[in-house]
């Protein structure tokens, strides 16, 4: 098996840390059991190893191109779509009633992690398709579901998320793509089109992932547009299904006037095409309303929130693959001697023996295993939200809402640093394409940008999530962290960590109190000025929390010396070291950010742009 | 003028901050004056703007290739070499006695910064040539100098630095390329070859920048090798001139058996070829000893130390170009509204108006202008060392030695983050090759690797520079910082910064005292375990110091309201804001690193590699 991720760590996450098999005690998941989960993970590993990883470099080197108005991708994409469809990977998380396996998100999340660590670009095709299909099943009519979802789940039709427009990057409220109700003649005299809610679409979309490609027979855009005459801003946005090809009266697929205006040449993530689309240039583009008019943005956020977790997962996966490449290299590569060995004729040692290389590896390990843990935690909240009721359901819902921007951003930002450290472990070779780490570095750079930039996530966390329900979500989160502190305090080996995490919680609380005063005294612009820093600080705390959860599990396993083999002991000790690394090297950075957040200075609010530009 | 750097800032550095024209009071530089310096800078700007910047993207997209054993580079390289040679850019820093202009390093450093900000790859050809030629003039015989230096300074012959070997990346003491004294028959019966110190060279070198290309008529390698039978380790390494083509008895250039075994395909920095060389495969490769046998490593460090400053300068230059690209874009791009503006029909604002975008720009500005300042400071120390004597000379020499690893590394590491933030300012467009920032991000990633990795620099700073002369260099540095604090304390606007920098000095002193105790109690391996972190912390302090120096100069200019125009005032206020940014957002990170460095934990020393590998 090619080493792009660790099965052992997945087992640890699934069993020791999150006890995912216990989900099957809920009726909704009761047709599964631990063995089924394991079989699914094994099957995902096999697909990743046999089909995805071998074309990682090839898909990067042969980027998509636009030919005669259509996007050509690497021929393997067609085979992959088939494999994803036939293997049930797109439908795995869907209810049985829609032809799915009703698997928990935490399990499908792990399979997506496996695919993305083998080949991130190749993993986005099914992920986008599943997300788009889920939007249709949640908000669409039975007719729409029947028309689109089966073909999508089979991997024959590609789904997309079409939000951004050239003049409205992060500012979705400014989109101008318009949906026009059909005229009487267009309706052909019948009222059917009212029932089916057909519109004519005109406008442009940009940065649409998998917005066109020849690996699928059709492309189904889940598109935001304004119904002609709708109110300005976010309150006038509706959601449509806009297919590349629509079905005519005779059941044939005919072009739907969605033109690929351009594709982008990207730094990385080159195995998937990113397109610019133009709808309705011939006044012949039809779109079908999904759900309620003017509720499109809220509806889209179902897919968006999942996509944000998916981005965090993708970032974690790429950095994981980079880490294992670096680990492999540092074990093989002889170079230098121990500092205390002065004899130049003594043999060289593997570079993993050097403390600075260990530090670089520990950074990567703590990032990728900490991030994976946080994202599985979020997936578990989504699973529990689905099967619980009342207050409990609300708790999981709020925790998931609160942590989504964190689970999107922290792995995305740290993933760049981790892949960069992987390059550093290789030295000059890491800078060259003889090894995959330079690709991982390029691939990872997309994540702080797509599905909401880091700046947008910071505003989401501090401007919306922290204050929603009068701080209820933040309160619940702190409670969860305190539970972990509680369980760690009774373990002598973890007392240090428990007390440091307690300090970190106090630090967060102090910063929140300070910032809320800033909001009241100086206004929301001052409050949000350093939202990105707040998000970074929150991320450090959240990952420390996840590391302590892992530390508790690892220490428990180590204490049970009868059950813990020598090999297992190394694994668990590795966990303890990575936790120690995080608490000693990374957690102290939280205080440095807090110093800034509470210093009362407003330089970014005050500074006039002329101070940049007059030179 | 294309905006890849700021002339206004160069003027500020040259006059307000470092008063470089005052160097002309020393006899060695007395043939110059302020006007001459300015003319030289203007000429460099013109060359950069007309010849270098226009081919930035082209040279990236058409990377060097190996054809019939020779490296082909973009045809513009030949023209550039000619322009560098004819314009006197390679010889500018050489003594008049060697055909140079005897310019201070601080001025040639600025011209190199200008070239590198326009096109980093294009700037390394002359820089390498000048460094190699300087090694020959410093340590070579008159005969060697005559034979090589004029052609190099004219830009007809390319110089290189050939150190690394496949089995000895960072561990130079393990190089095996060997120099064999000629046999009697090879000497042709004469003793001349002894006098000329000719050897036969056999071995391999890797990662040799500009190691071969068709933009020059010959390639002159300054190569490390062991004379057959020399002692093991660093004490058995000698320095040779090994040309690609040597001059035969009739004065013709004939091949010297230096084969290009491979060229690398790199993440960035693609305008310059990086080669693997094989010498003596036909037993016909001759090399000429430079300086003393077995003193090669020490001699090479003259070029190496300059090259390290050059790397810091290159990193700063690339990040500078990225910053100006981002600045330009953020001024043009409308997106979103002020947070307090809720009306969706109000016009969008330029993204530079958003606080988070200002923060990203301030980060870049504080990195690039802080780093440039530190490097010019180092150049100035080099200039002063050259023209002073006794204790004063030693002071400048020690300060330069101490700060070289910092000036190499801090800009290199932060340059990656700065170019990454430039991408972030562009959003999705930054990830695509429609704009140059994705190239800057790729180009910048080389700098923590070449001319000694960051890990090596950390060991150099903490393991050698801090403890040399019983801490004498560190003492001198702290004194220089204290002088700046002193001059700032009397300016009311800078009291805060002066006191923060004072705290930072105390923090550094505490860490040094703690680490020296670690060395005595636990040994050098513990002492050096986190040398990279120590370097990072030291870098933050050094840049804060440089920002306070700039702050003093800017505040002085602002106070002189009669001389300070409205436009100038914006420039100086921009400096004050960037200083504030650095002191409020970056300086607090120093304490977080100090927490780790003084926590007494040894995890990277203790951890067995099996804890990584058993999974």
Automatic annotation (TrEMBL), chains A, B:
Homotetramer. Residues 294-460 form the Acyl-CoA dehydrogenase/oxidase C-terminal domain. The keyword Iron-sulfur does not apply. Residues 161-279 form the Acyl-CoA oxidase/dehydrogenase middle domain. Residues 38-156 form the Acyl-CoA dehydrogenase/oxidase N-terminal domain. This is Acyl-CoA dehydrogenase family protein. Residues 477-607 form the Acetyl-CoA dehydrogenase-like C-terminal domain. It is an enzyme of class 1 (oxidoreductase). Gene3D superfamilies: Acyl-CoA dehydrogenase/oxidase, N-terminal domain, Butyryl-CoA Dehydrogenase, subunit A, domain 2, Butyryl-CoA Dehydrogenase, subunit A, domain 3. Belongs to the acyl-CoA dehydrogenase family. Its EC number is 1.3.8.1. Its cofactor is FAD. InterPro entries: Acyl-CoA_dh-like_C_dom (IPR025878), Acyl-CoA_Oxase/DH_mid-dom (IPR006091), Acyl-CoA_Oxase/DH_mid-dom_sf (IPR046373), AcylCo_DH-like_C (IPR036250), AcylCo_DH/oxidase_C (IPR009075), AcylCoA_DH/ox_N (IPR013786), AcylCoA_DH/ox_N_sf (IPR037069), AcylCoA_DH/oxidase_NM_dom_sf (IPR009100). The keyword Signal does not apply. GO terms for molecular function: flavin adenine dinucleotide binding; short-chain fatty acyl-CoA dehydrogenase activity.
